[in-house]
Amino acid sequence: MKDTLLYNARLIDPEAGTVSEGALLLSGGRIKAVVTSADEIATLQGQTAAQDLNGAHIAPGIVDLGVKVGEPGERHKESFKTAGVAAAAGGVTTMVTRPDTSPAIDTPEVLEFIRRRANETAPVNVLPMAALTKGREGREMTELGFLLDAGAVAFTDCDRVVTDTKVLSRAMGYARSLGALVMGHPQEPILSKGAAASSGKFASLRGLPAVSPMAERMGLDRDIALVEMTGVRYHADQITTARALPALERAKNNGFDVTAGISMHHLTLNEMDVADYRTFFKVKPPLRSEDDRQAVLEALRTGLIDVIGSFHTPQDEESKRLPFEEAASGAVGLETMLPVLLRLYHAGEVDLPTLFRGLSLNPAKRLGLDCGRLSAGAPADLVIFDADKPFVLDRFKLQSKSKNTPFDGARLQGKVLQTLVAGTPVWSA
Amino acid sequence: MRFDQRHLLGIEPLRPDEITTLLDLAERYVTLSRARDKHANALAGLTQINMFFENSTRTQSSFELAGKRLGADVMNMSMQASSIKKGETLIDTALTLNAMHPDLLVVRHPHSGAVDLLAQKVNCAVINAGDGKHEHPTQALLDALTIRRAKGRLHRLNIAICGDIAHSRVARSNLLLLHKMENRIRLVGPSTLMPSGIADFGAEVYDDMAEGLKDVDVVMMLRLQKERMDGGFIPSEREYYHRWGLDAEKLAHAKPDAIVMHPGPMNRGVEIDGTIADDINRSVIQEQVEMGVAVRMAAMDLLARNLRARPTELAV
Questions:
Q1: Mutate to test the interface with A, among B112, B126, B165, B170 (most CBs of A within 10 A)
Q2: At the fourth CATH level, which superfamily is domain A61-373?
């Protein structure tokens, strides 16, 4: 098979922090070379299957850390097939899936099942995470070793915090001896119980049960202390408040193996967006104040926050058409993440290499994957997009089975033109 | 004199002139209600459904009486006993009701925002009779009418709202209304019973009753919402009464002609001393109940006028 040349492109290199004009030469499902000299490109055009990108951007495909797929248990909300197509449509080339399914992914057998389902139906790479404790109940650790052997890339109980610190310290200690990555959800569980909003004037006026943003810092402080105790590799799924950032910074400065993520929603929305009890804006942790949003955005720029994820959480209409307190949490995001985050780029708040450092490079590095880079030898998992193309988002046109996006009707800019996994197109607009 | 609302979901969307319009009309219904013949026909031919997802005797009978005095066909639905227990969602209940073509729907629900949600799904005018910890607009309006009648004005008054503000929808609606009408508001109570973000509410916050009541014109006591608390907000009722219960000694810090209000039902000996509540020179608690009927008549009358001015819509 001939090599492929993608030319007349704007190459986003998150490692170098640059955007440059040039071409990518793909061969055997990998990036063979990054070509910037015009002469060389002209020569290569004759020898390869050449594709003119007409000045579109090309970036390493997104590695989305923390995607919920409804298998097993809630296939009516999302299957590997629909999630996979949504991912491809959104430029996500690797979905790192969550174990908060029913039943939870807590045995090698269930993990085996979902790996098979994913391989059969999803057009993008799927890497599963497994539960840290059995049934995500916080009482006994799962068979971390078997699960690791079966392909689990990280261990997490997702938004169910392990309340029993002794259980958590043992699970972390055991995970350390296996070299496994543990993903925590920093939240003081008793303080945040039943909360649907962040405490403050907005929640008080709306009369919503609320949690102090301080609960996130308390949760993070505990987890970091346990990291210090056990030496485990730790990733905080979402750091969304200003108050938690100094603790994160200290942990990193002290040399602990700690990283942190942030959701697309907390980077682009604040608590006021809930307005008159719009349940599609109910996420976990709840949306924060604008001050918090600004602080985490700054932390993303400086690199204190490492990873951006969609925290894709499909919910059917019934679970959202309820009074706010009773409505389910979460939003779909696989397909909307890139255009939504490009809002930050168009507003001049973050540049494209920084965005893809959080979307592709850092999550890949954290999981020990060789993708996420735009350099020779890396897999040709790529997203090609027009950063400027305007459109109005219509939630019923999403590929996901569930349509619970807070961005319905939003005016966005940026459209994925093509997504490649190992050099093969899995989505073309 | 304008009132442009389709629903009465809260005080928040009301303009000050709309509040005044409503209170002025309510004054006329006070007169009507005191007459021997209490009938008017503002709601004649209209169907009013009272849907209470939470227990209520006072508010429900007040709405029922208000509707009947204005000639509406009034139906009460006790929703605890109904299909909600059979797992029907709020929206399904709303759509079922909507098919019966009510004109006025009076709703109380234990969850904040539930009445807003319901209002999006029906064609009739919806009145919020209290949703969770959010709003209770007719209570704030009846309090406003009571204050205006007692003090001769509804602006530039010093008003203390005392007690369990965190769990109180009455406090939120009152705070919004009294702010819109340009009064100075104090919130008095222990910090465990103050809502979060209290510093941004534009009110002065006191944790001591003597300081909080100093020279106020109006003392609004709130009921300790024991049913909404999930434990441990105050050490005991007797300690609460000692520090924050309204008695003669604490009331002495207010202006000599200050009035005492309570939305009821009262916990005598917890948030208020019985003799203060019964003191006809200070307490306007009975008057509040009377104003309640008049204000609800006015609210339903205004909404019905807007309803009649709109062409009939097709059911969704």
A1: B112
A2: Metal-dependent hydrolases (3.20.20.140)
